[in-house]
Prior knowledge:
By secondary structure, the protein is an alpha/beta fold. It has one domain. The protein is built from one helix and seven strands. It has a six-stranded parallel barrel.
Amino acid sequence: MRTLVSLLPLLLILATPAVVTAGDKPDVSKIYGKIQVVESFPDYKVKVVESFADLHVQVVESFPDDPGKWQMVNSFPDYKIQFVDSFPDFTIMYVNSFPGPQD
Length: 103
């Protein structure tokens, strides 16, 4: 019983979800490779915009090995994304050249 009581604070800390503030954005320079679009359980929620994007994305057929280069796949993705209209983790803009993070 005494062991259970001493473990209770540790269990409460582990069960508490992490709080993400509005200023926390992922490092978009590391989001490239094989991308799968999903409707639920994404790694990132993304909004497509026309200007002032966090990441310029170029969709490629092969060799998605630089920041901003995405190869769309249906299985075995590096990252899963969900397109949303509000509360995205980051924004993207599709480009034909010069992909990558925008400062």
